[in-house]
Design a protein that fits this description.
Layout: H1 2-21, E1 34-39, H2 45-59, E2 65-70, H3 77-89, E3 94-98, E4 104-106, H4 109-114, E5 118-122, E6 126-128, H5 137-153, H6 158-166, E7 170-172, H7 173-179, E8 184-186, H8 189-195, E9 203-205, H9 217-226, H10 229-252, H11 258-290, H12 323-327
Helix pairs in contact: 1-9, 1-10, 2-3, 5-6
């Protein structure tokens, strides 16, 4: 019974982790709505999963477009490249907006911005320094090739885009627009909506959860394993089956009360009391069989010392009174 309890606790814990780690994207989004995600922290696996699910909703027709507001100067290579792959498949429906004023899109977030079909920069922002501190020449050349292909795919200046990797160049909004790195420059978020003819009432913002960032490949694989919807359903069904089995076993198997235990103990004591004479007889027989016969050779000699004992009067002998008593 104890093992059933342990298994139930483990399944409930796994189900809870699975429910909490599943990315939440609003299922009520319609084809006329635009999903807005603001990225103002490092792009990690958690952020990549959130954006990938939103991109999947757009690809399935549950939303019209995906609007990414970028304001981050850090990111991780693996999740950023995964995000680039997801965005490239729906690039015509993705809008990357570097804003508001003072925002920065650098390191690997630059690849996310360049993977979008429309790149808009707010006045007073910057983009570039896409190498992300990478110094290996082969890796730099590979990243420059990825940047060129993204620029060509979306009709932008490939050479100026590659300079953000090979030369670690950072462009302001004016320079990026003049060199053909970005597609549009606006002075506010409202100007962005009015220029692109976007209705603010159709925008649905999805905020990243406040859980700690997941940057390790092993931790990400573990979270993805428990976040699988099929696994979550299987765990729920398993918990329900184990609970039903536990209840069935509890109803079928009789429970022993304290009175039953006391009666069992009393019966055990009575049984031992009844069997005790037989046990003593068997013990005596075994003792006689094991005792050797006494002969003259092994008969013990009497003790050599004398024991002084007080003489006891015979019971038939009459005690005489002292002389003083008889004279009276």
């Amino acid at each position: 019974m104890r093992y059933w309890r342990v298994i139930q606790v483990l399944l409930l814990a796994a189900t809870t982790i699975s429910a909490l780690s599943t990315p939440m994207v609003k299922a009520s989004a319609t084809s006329t709505q635009i999903i807005l995600i603001r990225i103002n922290s490092a792009i990690d696996y958690k952020t990549a999963d959130l954006i990938a699910n939103a991109a999947g909703a757009v690809q399935q027709g549950d939303a019209a477009k995906l609007l990414l507001e970028l304001d981050t100067d850090s990111g991780y290579y693996a999740p950023s490249m995964q995000l680039v792959d997801h965005l490239s498949s729906i690039r015509t429906k993705v809008i990357a907006y570097v804003g508001p004023a003072g925002a920065v899109s650098s390191t690997f977030s630059t690849f996310v911005a360049m993977a979008s079909g429309l790149l808009v920069m707010n006045t007073g922002t910057s983009i570039g320094k896409a190498a992300g501190g990478v110094e290996d020449p082969d890796t730099v050349n590979y990243l420059a090739g990825v940047m060129k292909s993204l620029a060509v795919m979306n009709g932008r200046n490939a050479l100026a885009a590659a300079e953000m990797v090979t030369g670690n160049v950072e462009y302001s909004a004016d320079d990026a627009y003049s060199k053909g790195v970005c597609d549009l420059e606006v002075d506010s978020y409202r100007a962005l909506l009015s220029t692109l003819n976007l209705n603010a009432t159709n925008i649905v913002e999805i905020k990243p959860s406040q859980h700690p960032s997941v940057n390790s490949d092993t931790a990400y694989a573990l979270v993805k394993f428990f976040a699988d919807p099929f696994l979550m359903k299987t765990l729920l069904v398993g918990c329900a089956v184990l609970v039903m089995l536990d209840l069935l076993i509890t109803l079928v198997r009789p429970r022993r009360s304290r009175l039953d235990e006391a009666n069992r103990t009393l019966l055990e004591l009575i049984r031992l009391e009844v069997l005790s004479p037989d046990l003593c007889l068997l013990t005596n027989e075994r003792h006689l069989n094991d005792t050797p016969l006494q002969t003259i050779a092994n008969t013990p000699s009497p003790p050599t010392f004398k024991i002084n004992r007080l003489s006891t009067p015979s019971p038939n002998k009459r005690l005489e009174r002292p002389m003083e008593v008889r004279k009276r």
